[in-house]
Write a structure and sequence with these properties.
There is one protein chain. By secondary structure, the chain is mostly helical. The chain folds into two domains: 3-52; 55-178, no CATH class. It has helices spanning 3-17, 22-40, 44-52, 54-79, 84-107, 115-146, 151-174. Helix 5 (84-107) packs antiparallel against helix 6 (115-146). The protein is globular, with a radius of gyration of 19 Å.
């Protein structure tokens, strides 16, 4: 991508900064910092690709962070010798709260403000997460409780499956197009 196009995209991002909250501004600043480094070392093609795929890339970053939150929370309660399914459920609740906030504000940039819209968005988010919790819990029950495989490793594998399913649910059903970030090139 040419420098002028990069500057144009950056100006669009700066204009959006005026109406964004602290979490969104922090995300933009961190993202911009790393993209500027990549640009400075000659990886402008990566910057171009990243900006075209920004929503998916942000989902991967925050999905990875939510996974870390989930796994660390699970490992803490597993270490405290709580039953696997209780540890898994506590970890799920903590990770879902983190994921909703980051998905809403940083990934899909939801603009919903009416109470009814927020209630629908949140309930859809939780419902989709409950579906993936059930899938994850069945996986954990079979692999850890029945097959006696290493619990934390099975948790990591379960989270890979869950991340993919959660993105599909979020993109297609919860945070529909009206809330996505628009930094794509104009045709």
């Amino acid at each position: 991508m040419k420098k002028s196009r990069q500057n144009e995209l950056r100006k669009k991002r700066q204009a959006k900064q005026l109406s964004r909250n602290w979490l969104q501004k922090t995300t933009d600043a961190c993202e911009g910092f790393f993209l500027n480094i990549f640009d400075a070392i000659g990886l402008w093609f990566f910057v171009d690709w990243y900006l075209k795929k920004q929503e998916a890339m942000r989902y991967l970053v925050f999905g990875a962070l939510a996974t870390v939150v989930n796994i660390v929370t699970f490992a803490i309660f597993d270490h405290l010798k709580l039953p696997v399914l209780i540890s898994n459920t506590i970890a799920w609740v903590v990770a879902v709260i983190f994921a909703y906030l980051t998905n809403r504000y940083c990934v899909f940039n939801s603009k919903k403000t009416k109470k009814s819209e927020l209630a629908k968005e949140l309930s859809s988010f939780i419902a989709a997460r409950v579906v993936t919790l059930v899938i994850e819990s069945i996986f954990m029950w079979i692999t850890v409780e029945q097959l006696h495989w290493y619990s934390v490793m099975m948790k990591v594998i379960a989270n890979i499956i869950v991340i993919i399913l959660n993105f599909v649910f979020s993109k297609l059903f919860i945070f529909k197009k009206d809330g996505s970030i628009e930094l794509k090139e104009d045709a």
